[in-house]
Design a protein that fits this description.
Elements (H helix, E strand, L loop, with lengths): L1 H8 L7 H4 L4 H31 L6 H23 L6 H31 L3 H48 L3 E6 L4 E4 L1 H7 L3 H4 L27 E6 L5 E13 L2 E10 L1 H47 L4 H27 L8 E4 H15 L4 E7 L5 E4 L1 H17 L5 E12 L1 H6 L6 E10 L6 H6 L17 H11 L3 E7 L3 E9 L3 H5 L2 H6 L7 E5 L3 H13 L3 E5 L2 H10 L5 E5 L8 H11 L5 E5 L3 H6 L9 E3 L4 H18 L1
Parallel strand pairs: 7-9, 13-14, 13-15, 15-16, 16-17
Antiparallel strand pairs: 1-2, 1-5, 3-4, 4-5, 6-8, 9-10, 10-12, 11-12
Helix pairs in contact: 3-4, 4-5, 9-10, 10-15, 12-15, 19-20
């Protein structure tokens, strides 16, 4: 091998290229300059490639550039040797260089062709510009889409906030809100409606609204809720079958091209009761003004009649027969004066001299008087509450009022009976004031006159205080006794109420301001705070709709669940169908042929050991004395405060536990 290279590198026997060119200077220098320029250009290319590869680390085919640089460098070297061989025939070295160049070129070419598809896949500047333009366009679209998405998100957030606010308003509204479609199907039922109607929202969804407002039944198919267009007063039907008056305000909107209706339901039970009480108060005020005017003018006439009759009597001393007529005229005039005085008392125009009165001492004094004046078949007893009971009123008028009540009680017991005079401290709270808005809440001295006579009908009770209204026979009553009591109580800033049931008797209560009532009235709210609560289910049987509505609200406010019935038969039916009822709370006297006592007996046959709380206008002691209640019965005396109601409910539950 070494001999081969020695022979290859031996140039002693060879001639330079210049001989082939005949040593022509122009031709020789043409080759020299051309080869030199080519060599310099070739030598510069590897340096440029080296700089490119070293600085562009991201090139995927860097090794190809290095191979190409070696190939170009070898090509440049061959041109340098071509210049050298013009004078020196080193053709062996030139051949070796060309061989190396051939190897580099073959390697580069063989590596380049497989890479050609990948190299062609490299984007051209034009393609890069297109891609860049597309990217810029896409970026603009993305930016627009982002802005649109942000706007959509903002709109959705605003919608969610609006829905949340609307939901909060609907959920917390005091009035009921019902959403229903053109076919009267209920779509929304807020918590206030649940409290008003007694249904859960899930029980009424997609059901007809006539379930709740039966008086608004559709006139026929296809009416599409036009009968609700104006709203107005309506009657609501609760789940327990009871009804209540309400104002229905209906608005219409459109959803997906179909009409929908929003009904606002407002319970007007309290307003109706207030209107009724106000109407009664206005009527009594009107009658009072009329009677006061008549009494004033009539007194003037009586003054003339009595004065002339007295003078005429003096002039007729010699004629006893005629003088008797004059004396009769005078006595009749005095009787008329007494009637006008009672009219003035009703119209609250009499002169009062209020003072502190010991109610116990007054009733003890009246007891002695009644034992001498009332019939012997009338048994009279007294009952005094604890503590000092002092009223601030006119003593003479108060004695006259109690006397009038006692005489009325005697007339109501023609065959004899029991008369009870009682006094205690009482407080009129906001619940009682809701039923009697003309009364101021606060602490009062209470005097009650109770009999077990014939009692009054509701119609008679409503007119009992009207002047000249009486149920007695002609000549046995003027109809001014209760009117005088009413006027005296009102003029004394007090209140008078009647509780009466036919066959049971009557209780008339006179509420008078207490002497020093400021101290006691401040303590009243403490009892409300301390009112015991519960969670049991109570069946309330009460025939009066206003009283029933008031009791339901007060019992529910104490945490209990309520089932209502309007009479004994309905109460027994609900007791049979609802095993969750824990107590019966019933009025003593109800229409329908079943009294509270009978209802309790039959209820305990269905449910042995069922707690029962009775309510009545009589105290338990009076009922026991009359043989109408057992001593262990739990009775809540009307009217009662919320704290008394709460305590009696717990007492009724405790009584069953003790008995068992």
């Amino acid at each position: 091998m070494w001999a081969y290279f020695e022979r290859l590198l031996d140039s002693s026997m060879l001639s330079p290229h210049g001989i082939c060119l005949l040593w022509e200077p122009e031709l020789i220098w043409l080759h020299v300059v051309s080869d030199a320029c080519i060599a310099l250009a070739y030598f510069s290319i590897p340096f440029a490639l080296a700089i490119l590869v070293t600085r562009r680390r991201d090139l995927r085919f860097g090794w190809v550039f290095w191979a190409f640089a070696v190939f170009i460098m070898a090509c440049g070297l061959t041109h340098v040797l071509s210049i050298y061989t013009l004078w020196v025939p080193v053709y062996g070295i030139e051949g070796l260089v060309k061989a190396a160049t051939a190897v580099a070129s073959v390697f580069t070419a063989s590596a380049l062709w497989p890479l050609l598809p990948k190299i062609l896949a490299i984007p051209s500047p034009f393609e890069l510009r297109k891609v860049q333009a597309a990217l810029e366009e896409e970026e603009i679209k993305t930016r627009d889409a982002t802005l649109l998405l942000q706007q959509v998100n903002d709109a959705q957030r605003a919608m969610r906030e609006s829905v949340a606010r609307l939901t909060a308003i609907v959920e917390t509204a005091v009035d009921g809100v019902i959403l229903f479609d053109a076919d009267d199907r209920i779509l929304l039922f807020n918590p206030a409606c649940e409290r008003l109607f007694g249904y859960q929202a899930s029980e009424v969804m997609n059901r007809k609204i006539q379930l709740l407002i039966p008086g608004e039944a559709s006139p026929g198919p296809g009416s599409r809720a036009r009968h609700f267009a104006t709203g107005g007063e309506a009657v609501g039907l609760r789940k327990d079958g009871t009804t209540f008056p309400m104002d229905l305000s209906v608005g219409q909107a459109t959803q997906d091209g179909e009409p929908i209706f929003v009904g606002i339901v407002h319970d007007v039970t309290a307003r109706k009761l207030t209107e009724q009480q106000l109407h009664q108060a206005q009527k009594m005020e009107t009658v009072g003004q009329l009677s006061g005017g008549i009494a004033h003018d009539f007194n003037n006439l009586l003054t003339v009649i009595i004065g002339n009759a007295e003078q005429l009597s003096d002039q007729l001393k010699a004629r006893p027969d005629l003088r008797r007529f004059a004396d009769d005229i005078c006595q009749s005039g005095e009787r008329g004066a007494e009637l006008t005085q009672q009219l003035l008392a009703f119209s609250r125009r009499q002169l009062l001299r209020p003072q502190a009165i010991d109610c116990r001492e007054l009733l003890e004094f009246m007891l002695k008087l009644f034992k001498r004046t009332l019939r012997e078949n009338i048994e009279i007893t007294t009952a005094f509450g604890p503590g000092t009971i002092q009223a601030f009123a006119d003593r003479t008028q108060l004695e006259s009022a109690v006397l009038n009540l006692a005489l009325n009680a005697q007339d109501a017991m023609p065959n004899g009976g029991h008369l009870t005079l009682s006094t205690e401290l009482a407080a009129i709270d906001e619940d009682y004031r809701a039923l009697h808005p003309e009364v101021a809440s606060g602490s009062y001295a209470l005097i009650s006159v109770t009999d077990d006579g014939e009692g009054m009908t509701p119609e008679v009770i409503e007119r009992a205080f009207e002047p000249f209204f009486t149920t007695k026979e002609v000549g046995k009553g003027s109809g001014l006794g209760l009117s005088m009591v009413y006027g005296f109580a009102k003029q004394s800033d007090g209140h008078v109420s009647i509780y009466s049931e036919q066959g049971f008797g009557t209780t008339v209560r006179i509420y008078l301001p207490r002497a020093g009532a400021e101290q006691s009235s401040a303590k009243a709210p403490e009892n409300e705070v301390a009112a015991p609560r519960g969670h049991e289910t109570i069946l309330i049987a009460e025939d009066d709709p206003f009283v029933r509505s008031s009791v339901i609200h007060r019992v529910e406010a104490l945490g209990y669940r309520v089932v209502a019935a309007v009479n004994g038969k309905e109460a027994l039916a609900r007791l049979r169908t609802d095993p969750g009822i824990d107590m019966l709370f019933t009025d003593i006297v109800m229409p329908g042929g079943i009294s509270g006592w009978e209802l309790a007996d039959q209820a305990r046959r269905i449910r042995p050991g069922l707690p029962v709380l009775f309510t009545s206008g009589y105290a338990l002691e009076t009922l026991v004395e009359q043989g109408r209640a057992q001593a262990q019965a739990v009775v809540l005396t009307k009217p009662y405060r919320k704290a008394e109601l709460a305590q009696r409910l717990r007492d009724a539950f405790a009584a069953v536990v003790v008995t068992s």
